[in-house]
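User: Could you write out the 3D structure of this protein bound to magnesium ion? I've included everything you need below.
Assistant: Certainly. Input first, then the structure.
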Amino acid sequence: MSRIRQQNVTAAQWSSNGESLGALDLTMPENAAFGANVFDEEVQRERLPADVYEKLQATLAGGEALDSSLADAVAEAMMEWALERGATHYTHMFQPLTGSTAEKHDSFFEPAGDGKLIAGFSGKDLIQGEPDASSFPTGGVRATFEARGYTAWDPTSPAFILENPNGTLLAIPTAFASWTGEALDAKIPLLRSMDALSRTAVKALRLLGDEATERVYTTVGPEQEYFLIDEQYFFERPDLISTGRTLFGAKPPKGHELDDHYFGSIPERVLAFMMESELEMRKLGIPVKTRHNEVAPAQYEIAPIFESSNVGSDHQQLLMQTLENVARRYGLVCLLHEKPFAGVNGSGKHNNWSMATDSGTNLLNPGDTPQDNIHFLFFCTAVIQAVNKHQGLLRASVANIGQDHRLGANEAPPAIISIFLGAELEKVFEAISTGEGDPNTPASFLDLGSSVLPPLPLDGGDRNRTSPFAFTGNKFEFRALGSSMSLAFPNTVLNTIAAEAIDDLAGKLKAKLDAGQEMPEAVIEIVKDSYLANKVVCFSGDGYSEEWHQEAERRGLKNLKTTPDALPEVVADSTVKAFEEYSVLSKRELESRYDVWVEQYAMRANIEAEETFSIGQTMILPAGLRQLALISDAGVSALEGEIRELVDDLVGTLGELKAANAVPAGLEGMELAEYARDNQLASMGAVREVGDKLERVVADDLWPLPKYEEMLFIK
Ligand code: ADP
Ligand code: MG
């Protein structure tokens, strides 16, 4: 079938799917959808026996495991609540090492013996499931014959109802482990890392004179970028279907250079989609806040308000699913790939991260009092130390094959991890480390000898878009995540390395205090020493520039360009030491992740390479041949040379790709990943280059794939 422009007219049409979402009076509490589908604290208070409710809340506040005697009562209430909302089934939703979520549905109903069905859901059903784990990646932690895996209820992330046009489902967030207790998922290490951070931060707070805080939480507020294209184009492109990105496609005459998309007015169909997605998310208790057009045409962003790391990470998985599901109701497809269109801005995810006490004090918020500022400086210094020590691991925590097209290009942070502190904060640290205050800045320390510190008037609006890790007023923003990623591992890493650094600084503080040194001088000395030792990682200039790459090399910072370069950091000695010391992941659990991620890279590269060959051979080559025939028919020999040369080049490069795709037997693990990168991906690039040249010269109606111009601009 030849492609004709009429198809674009069809694609551009849509019928509004709105069910008057905006017609409710939102001043009426009963019309507020927020959390309507969540078994949250309010529902628990209403429905659980008072003593069970109290005990459950106490358990949650203390971060301890739940007494199994409570589980029956909770399960009973949960089932009643779910049945009232039409749920016939429940699922333990977990996050295996595939990076997405997994679910197996079980009905509440069982035969009662008299030919009827009876609904039942026990505490045991709630607390533990036993899915067959053999089909999930384990990186060798569990041999296939030990197929049993366990899912364990995570009471800190509330259960919720998932709606479908034909019914509903009770979803229970769970952890997933092998029968030997090793974590096979993304949630367990995240929870363990939150515990580790809490333990060390509370210890430090005690030394800093805080007697009240019992628990410290880490918080995460993500900003998610994504593309929306008409589903007609999506289903016309085998590359988008099987790899999530376009493997061919010439750059259109118009890209984002006119800057007319960013923050532009949102097209009606897209806004309708956003509104319905947000309604769904509000029902699920996801506190979505901000929406806007992003830089690239057809690119958008959504940002929820921050939550505790665990809940925020679960919500992020739901958010991505919701975007994908709701898009289809509007004839759109949501692309979460990091680089769906070559030459066009890719999609990332910002990970705003902080630490807060159980009474709600943000530990990275410079305060109005000297005491607050001392706390702030202590914890901020710990983060700088952690990031410098584990730069490579942070880079590895955001590594995937899609990211390799994005990081380091002129649109996303470089693959070099550095910290942007902002001018004000940098002055504070410089003043402390040199012992000389700059009298021109109110933010610097005028009199380090006295125990009085001035307030730090830090400007939260300070921005440097080119930095991968920036202090933004009261939190750090880790900007290098890819758009398709789970938040779980990057936050596990942040929490663990921060816990290690806080512990280290707390040890030093204790020694000084024991030796009779006074506060705040003891803290100031620690801040000074640590900052001087780690300031190489701080950089406030242009992270995109070539000078920075050279400067970073001089400073000895790591520049891990591709996923195979970065992943060994997951099993580096410094990683194993920190993760084992704080009981986040054992060496074996880290190795299993390394194995899984290396394998995923090689598999995805292989799929891309085979898809490139298939499209090149069966779609693009025939288009080139038809064009040649057209020219011969017309007898215009002047046109023939260019096409013939391109077709010859295509045949040649396809031959090389075919050879690269014949992967030598016996390669596995990192060798296979490196082979894929250096041979398959490299040959794909050559095929694409010729294919994209052909796209510009072959007759439009003979071109077999929707073009960038159509996918990105027809809305
Ligand atoms: P901006 O300064 O860009 O206007 P905000 O300060 O409102 O933005 O926050 C930007 C993002 O940072 C939001 O996703 C928000 O939820 C998140 N955020 C704000 N405070 C915190 C925090 N303490 N911990 C984690 N994320 C936070
Ligand atoms: Mg943004």
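Residues 439-452 have pLDDT under 50 and may be disordered.
User: Perfect, thank you.
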